[in-house]
Amino acid sequence: MTHRGSRLSAPVAVLCVAAVLHPAAAVADIVGFTSPSRNVGCMLDDDYVRCDIAERQWSPPPRPAGCPAVTGYGQGIELQATGPASFVCAGDTAMGGGPALPYGQVQARAGISCGSEPSGMRCSNSEGHGFTLSRQGYTLL
């Protein structure tokens, strides 16, 4: 099938990419939120969370061999419902995906929770793995 002159709008394109990259979760099930400073943006579904950062005063660890040079690396951290957190290797972003999560509030889904703190965003899974992310630094838990 050929589409001539057909272009997807940005919101439709984002929804299509989200559905393809994470087909197990319906697009409507993904919750987006940001830090009150709007410097950290997160996307959370039932078994995965990803938080990206706009401005930082630190550098991520070296790019792993399996992360292609054509993608971004280190712009955020991701966490599955099980296992440890890792740096993001992707060409998209989790920034701007939802409203601010006030300090002291938590977004949680099926074993993953993220809390907004004045010191940054903190996410963890039921195994105790997780991360903190802020302008000043990061921690993999």
TrEMBL record:
Signal peptide limits: 1-28
UniProt keyword terms in alphabetical order: Signal
Tree of life domain: Bacteria
Pfam family, one: DUF6636
Cited InterPro entries: DUF6636
Protein name: Secreted protein
